[in-house]
Amino acid sequence: MKAVILVGGEGTRLRPLTCNIPKSMVPIINRPFLEHMINHLKSHGIDDITLALCHLPDQIQSYFGDGSDFGVKLTYVIEDYPMGTAGAVKNVEQHLDETFFVFNGDIFTDLDFSAMMRSHRQMGAKVTIALTPVEDPTIYGVVETDAGGRLLRFVEKPSRDEAPSNMINAGTYIVEPDVLSHIPPRCFFTFERELFPLLLNIGDPIYGYPSNAYWIDIGTTEKYQKLHHDLLTRRVSRGFPGQRAGEGIWVEGDCDIHPSAQLKGPTVIGGNCVIDSGVQVKGPSVIGQGCHIGKDSLIEGAIVWHNTRLGQGVALRNCIIAEGIFIGDRSRVAEGCILGNNVVIGCDQSLTQGTRVWPPENRR
Ligand code: GTP
Question: For residues 137 and 228, what is the distance between their CA atoms, to the nearest angstrom?
């Protein structure tokens, strides 16, 4: 089956993590987000995938190549300027000659795509929209359907009183190719605000596909952390890279872990890490590949990306430390801090709760 994944957005809400990498490449348990997504698609027979790129396309192309290492066929189309979610799909129209899926490239879900396709065909829908329940619908696109699931109304970011339901557009669609004729070429056009209202107006059958499957978009740092937490605590199940090396501990490839280091799960450690004496790692935590954790350091509930180096006696608590970072001896990084790629923190520094540090090359 065919799919388009939209991976052209700037991911502004996920900064500073996305200052210099696309949102779809941020690591989730030491693998790019998009790799998890492609694996899930492949498990449902979706193996002919077009990636609609715009912002920072090179990193995605050089990691995934033609897709053969990941068991899928990948085609890349780069927009000269952001075309919006539907405009981006129109832009890849030449690859879409059969019923196809569209995915926002920041959704992590367990949704049964095969069952969604069966429902789409049974209903004779032009578009089927996956729907997911949320506690607070006011920040999303909310959907009202009739008893048979046919879409009646689509309300973007309603107030609490106006919200017709708590079912929101989950950023996953099945689309018939002839629907694309309603999207003007080379224009900014979105599914939510332009295409769906237009289809409702002309009476095309749009159906909702409600599901309680696990669903999260990694649009914000809070949700990025929550996804890690849910994966590590097995609220949602995926295999971890590496071998089990103790209760709740996974270690990938060659690592040099001092016998006096104390590791408490759930924790995943990437390959080629050095963990010195007296280090304590408390889960749920992730340490990326090629990290060096200095003597007597503490990592508690933190997500550390690849190739980061901590000096001696450093303490990280519930924070996100991106790639290529250096933190000097005895420095402390408190809860909710986010450090972008290549940040350097000297010795004896204390970053207070919620501090965000931009990559050096992105500071004005
Ligand atoms: P924010 O700037 O934080 O809102 O993130 P975003 O730019 O990723 O926007 P949003 O979360 O609304 O986008 C949802 C999905 O659509 C993401 O996977 C984006 O990469 C993708 N997307 C958004 N706009 C475009 C676009 O103009 N072109 C393409 N190809 N993809 C887009």
Answer: 23
